[in-house]
UniProtKB/TrEMBL annotation:
InterPro entries: Metallopeptidase_M50B, Peptidase_M50, Rip2-like. It is a multi-pass membrane protein. It comes from Merismopedia glauca CCAP 1448/3. The keyword Glycoprotein does not apply. This is Peptidase M50 domain-containing protein. Coiled coil: none annotated. Keywords: Cell membrane, Hydrolase, Membrane, Metal-binding, Metalloprotease, Protease, Transmembrane, Transmembrane helix, Zinc. GO terms for molecular function: metal ion binding; metallopeptidase activity. Its main location: membrane. It is found in: Cell membrane. The chain crosses the membrane at residues 55-76, 88-109, 121-142, 171-198, 218-235. Belongs to the peptidase M50B family.
Amino acid sequence: MWQAGVFVFVGWIASVCFHEFGHAIAAYMGGDKSVKEKGYLTFNPLKYAHPQTSLVFPVLFMLMGGIGLPGGAVYINHNLLRNRFWQSLVSAAGPLANLVLALILAIPFQQGWIPLQDNGWFLPSLAFLVLLQVSSVILNLLPIPPLDGYGIIEPWLPANIQRQCQKFSNWGFWIVFGLFWFVPAFSQGFWQLVFIITNQLAVEPNLILQGNSLFRQPITRAVVLAGLLGGLWLLKQQNGSNSRVYAVSSRREPGVTGLRKQLASLVDRRTGDRLIASEKQKNPHQSERWYLEKVIYDLRRHR
């Protein structure tokens, strides 16, 4: 049923926003007021979106078998956070947001508001959405960079171990893919834990399986893929608009001159330009200030 695809896709995008908002509000409370300037204190998915991590990877994981992988792109300036405790809390806030959503979505099942025998699409889809939230919490707590589980423990690791782990951050998602595809024990243990938690939330396994079955139907997958393409188109339209704005305003953006001076004190201009160019390839269409803050943070972090 195509309605199931729409419900799950829209519900999942909303949960991605809630996840990223959790990171942003924790960072704001912890001292990084720049998240407000960057527009992260919102539930607008286009503010968080990065084509690969916000849409492509999460949808692929869902189509693989109902694995909840929140995406989004929220850059936190850790230099502004008060201490290591807040750095860990910022990382933990995303999975915590998904846990809260799972608890809220499971309330109708716990309170008996919903009959267990239902031939429609809504109940199975709601149960499947609970499963996505629970799987998201467990997956994101894995201590693999760049997942949140690693972000929680990273501030407490020695600097040399942090540097070594950062080298694998671009491969983290592929490592997770590999674990699910090529390590049966990992996949089995993961899903056993997910269903233990959903059982505790009073969500019937049969309803979850029905929702998963509905989600795997060709018409449902077509709706999800259409949503993916539509989302990518919206991102392209917004990024095209943003790039024109940044081209005009980046030189006048507050703090850019000071950030360039900070960068010059860390590396020579040629190296700085190369690092910024590399960051632009990985995170296109961000502001000039965003790139400068990211490069400066990485340089100081790796020292």
